[in-house]
Automatic annotation (TrEMBL):
PANTHER family xrefs: MICROTUBULE-ASSOCIATED PROTEIN (PTHR13843), MICROTUBULE-ASSOCIATED PROTEIN 1B (PTHR13843:SF5)
UniProt name for this protein: MAP1B protein
Top-level taxon of origin: Eukaryota
A biological-process GO annotation: axonogenesis
Gene transcribed to yield this protein: Map1b_0
Database matches in InterPro entries: MAP1
A GO CC annotation given for this chain: microtubule associated complex
Taxonomic lineage from the root: Eukaryota, Metazoa, Chordata, Craniata, Vertebrata
GO molecular function, one term: actin binding
Length: 134
């Protein structure tokens, strides 16, 4: 809480308020992995075996490098070193650079980035796909 004009208390906004962790099997990182809505606190609280990272818009900074770094920082604060799989929906320069620059830290934190190895063809469109077994 911070003091606003006229000594009025103003609540400080965060994407995910502090609190106990929530454990899930699969989490879609909100808003195309934009850093305006996802921070370290998100990954400290929302703990998942699988995170889906969407976003393919470098102009809008999606996916955000800050979000990917927040995953590393938040996961480092977990009490256990459970396996986490990151599933990108698009191949992006941001994702490739982050993967290469932080690969050793990913291994230390038991984070695996899943690359698509399959292609789905529907009518006149084809796209990469991943199979997830929960």
């Amino acid at each position: 809480i911070s003091k606003g004009p006229g000594n009025t208390k103003v609540a400080k906004s965060t994407a995910v308020p502090p609190g106990p962790p929530v454990y899930l099997d699969l989490v879609y990182i909100p808003n195309h992995s934009n850093s305006k809505n996802v921070d370290v606190e998100f990954f400290k609280r929302v703990r998942s075996s699988y995170y889906v990272v969407s976003g393919n818009d470098s102009a809008a900074e999606e996916p955000s490098r800050a979000v990917l770094d927040s995953l590393l920082e938040g996961k480092a604060q977990w009490e256990t070193n459970m396996q986490v799989t990151l599933i990108p929906t698009h191949d992006s320069e941001v994702m490739r650079e982050w993967y290469q620059e932080t690969h050793e830290k990913q291994q230390d934190l038991n984070i695996m980035v899943l690359a698509s190895s399959s292609t789905v063809v529907m009518q006149d469109e084809s796209f990469p796909a991943c199979k997830i077994e929960l």
